[in-house]
């Protein structure tokens, strides 16, 4: 009974770890890792929702006489996740390039130190 919700528990755990990492860490690379974990949990959730037990690919074939109608899986969640993975990789790449640029400009990737440097520059 409890194992039937295993994917959902993993989704919740990954979501909470990612959210905690994004909110609690001041290192920008760690924040990006937390954001990636958050994205992965959403991907897993959508894929888990799209799974149908006994479902087949949505390819229409002629049914044999007397055979039960086939159950088709909906391909839309999987297509959406494929697109979301591409967007997630692009977002992570852009974030890492911004972290490199911030490191070149400020000499650090720690958010607290960057804010202190900004306050000192304003004085």
Can you lay out the helices and strands and say which pair or pack?
Layout: H1 6-24, H2 28-50, H3 76-106, H4 111-122
Helix pairs in contact: 1-2, 2-3
List keywords for this structure.
123 residues; mainly alpha; elongated
Can you give a write-up of this model?
There is one protein chain. This protein has 123 residues and is mostly helical. 69% of the residues lie in helices and 0% in strands. The protein is built from 4 helices and no strands. Helix 1 (6-24) runs antiparallel to helix 2 (28-50) and helix 2 runs antiparallel to helix 3. The N and C termini lie far apart (62 Å). The model has no long low-confidence stretch (mean pLDDT 89).
Radius of gyration: 22 Å
Helix content: 55-70%
Largest sheet: none
Count up the helices: 4
Number of strand elements: 0
Structural class: mainly alpha
Proportion of residues in extended strands:
under 5%
The secondary-structure element order is HHHH
- Mean pLDDT equals 89
| Uncertain segments | none
**Terminal CA distance:** 62 Å
Question: What overall form do the CA principal axes indicate?
Answer: elongated
